[in-house]
């Protein structure tokens, strides 16, 4: 994958009414790098991801792709460059797996039907689900459904992938396969921001681990330093609870 970009958040602020949820977030992800965002529930992790692909607009600060602000881009065009995978897979239940992937390629990317099908089959193959093209999502395991959701995002050829607790809704035995796929994407050079509770994944796959607390990145660094020698007492407390 050679289309990756670097991603930077600069002093991003966002409030819902009087509730200040992001209070000056800074985060840098190198081109082709993987940043894992960890932190307690309610600290603003999902809100942070949503400001990156402009499902939410920051009140202040900037989001840069390869040094260029995305805030003046057309949001729909931007979302074609940034793939997002959610905890809930959001597949259309009444369509085949293949159709779930070709539909956005047809509607948004304006591919011809044969091009869309070819690309969708290639992405299904990549996530190990070529044999499930004609199945309905309900006939797949949660892990397989999430891999379809990832294939659907990848088929759009994004420059950045955002994952918001992509494995949190899965039965424990299905988590591994999805994490392995995410690790593979990281190895292949996709630029990724991964919000996760999977500390083992963060430790092994991330270039940067960012700890969020109360709307700021309180501490960020290499996984070794964040996990082995955390500086901030709140990070130490968080790690003692989750590890
Ligand atoms: P996290 O993903 O770290 O658990 P979120 O970003 O989802 O945290 O939420 C951070 C805070 O913002 C929470 O207090 C949440 O209730 C609040 N919040 C999130 N989305 C909205 C919204 N659309 N309207 C109002 N408050 C929201
Ligand atoms: Mg969240």
UniProtKB/TrEMBL annotation:
Localization per record: Cell membrane
| CC terms in the record's Gene Ontology section | plasma membrane
The UniProt keyword set, sorted, is:
Amino-acid transport, ATP-binding, Cell membrane, Membrane, Nucleotide-binding, Transport
Q: What is its main location?
A: membrane
Signal peptide boundaries: none
> How is the protein disposed in the membrane?
Peripheral membrane protein
GO MF annotations in UniProt: ABC-type amino acid transporter activity; ATP binding; ATP hydrolysis activity
InterPro entries cross-referenced by the UniProt entry: AAA+_ATPase, ABC_ATPase_HisP-typ, ABC_transporter-like_ATP-bd, ABC_transporter-like_CS, MetN_ABC_transporter-like, P-loop_NTPase
**PROSITE patterns per the UniProt record, alphabetical:** ABC_TRANSPORTER_1 (PS00211), ABC_TRANSPORTER_2 (PS50893)
Is Transmembrane helix found in the keyword set?
no
Q: Does the keyword Metal-binding apply?
A: no
- Residue ranges of the ABC transporter domain? 7-239
Q: Which SMART domains match?
A: AAA
To which protein family does this belong? Belongs to the ABC transporter superfamily.
Protein name (record): Amino acid ABC transporter ATP-binding protein
């Amino acid at each position: 994958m050679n289309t990756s970009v670097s991603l930077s958040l600069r002093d991003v602020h966002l409030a819902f009414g009087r509730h200040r949820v992001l209070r000056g977030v800074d985060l840098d992800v190198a081109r082709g790098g993987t940043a894992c965002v960890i932190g307690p529930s309610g600290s603003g992790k999902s809100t942070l991801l949503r400001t990156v692909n402009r499902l939410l607009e920051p009140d202040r600060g900037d989001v840069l792709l390869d040094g260029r602000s995305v805030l003046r881009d057309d949001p729909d065009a931007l979302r074609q460059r940034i793939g997002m995978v959610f905890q809930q897979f959001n597949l259309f239940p009444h369509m085949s797996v293949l159709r779930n992937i070709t539909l956005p390629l047809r509607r948004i990317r304006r591919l011809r039907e044969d091009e869309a099908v070819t690309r969708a089959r290639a992405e299904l193959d990549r996530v190990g689900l070529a044999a499930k093209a004609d199945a309905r999502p309900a006939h797949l395991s949660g892990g397989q459904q999430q891999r379809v959701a990832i294939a659907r995002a990848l088929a759009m050829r994004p420059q950045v992938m955002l994952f918001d607790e992509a494995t949190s809704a899965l039965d424990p035995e299905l988590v591994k396969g999805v994490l392995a796929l995410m690790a593979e994407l990281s190895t292949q050079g996709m630029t990724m921001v991964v919000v996760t509770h999977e500390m083992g994944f963060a430790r092994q796959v991330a270039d940067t681990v960012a700890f969020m607390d109360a709307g700021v990145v309180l501490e960020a660094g290499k996984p070794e330093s964040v996990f082995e020698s955390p500086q901030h007492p709140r990070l130490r407390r968080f790690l003692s609870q989750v590890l």
